[in-house]
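ARCHIVE RECORD
Type: protein–small molecule complex
Small molecule: 3-iodo-tyrosine
Source of inputs: curated submission
Record status: active
Notes field left blank by submitter.
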Amino acid sequence: MTDYPSIPLERYREYPIDEMRERVRSFYENLDRRRTVREFSDRPVPRDVIETALRAANTAPSGANLQPWHFAVVSGPETKRRIREAAEIEEREFYEHRASEEWLAALEPLGTDEHKPFLETAPYLIAVFLQKYGELPDGRKVKHYYPSESTGLATGLLIAALHEAGLATLTHTPSPMKFLNDILGRPKSERPFLLLVVGYPDDNARVPDIRRKELVDYASFIES
Ligand code: IYR
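STRUCTURE (tokenized, with ligand):
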């Protein structure tokens, strides 16, 4: 392992309080416009935009800075077709047998079902893999710490970056997702974490009129 030299925190920026307020508000207001979309356009998206969003994702904090994630970026129609086929098999099983009545009732307002045409329509699918352990070139294993937390953080940043770029995403979690390892040729050290569908929304895309919780409902301040 490398030993990192210690360097000054040169790239940190502090802002005057008013500017701090303005920046965080505008950041929040922009994120608040994000909606998960299920109807995608097939309009192409430049690959370099995806690459830069992935660089943003890769800035996420991770256990022991081991960056325990892999992003498999799929744009090829044949691979997208295979992913759709495999996902729909699992999803049919989910909606017809595996899901409890309670789960199906929770999904009802979202109007989801086993049909996943967006897996072929959208220009990009990003399969996010969690690396349970790392593998050195000589085959030795490197223990990873907090890989789920780390990969979740990286995925959150990826979604925010793509939204910032004006793209829509759908976090899709066909379960089980093991087929992604086979189709995308990923090693067994990697567990499929989720499948992110990326593109422009369809011109006629509609979304359910959901509400976000109020601050008091999801945060508490302990000041003594
Ligand atoms: N994976 C299924 C079901 C599903 C589950 C949850 I939790 C959602 O928020 C949405 C869908 C599907 O993608 O349809």
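CURATOR ANNOTATION: The CA atoms of residues 2 and 65 lie 12 Å apart.
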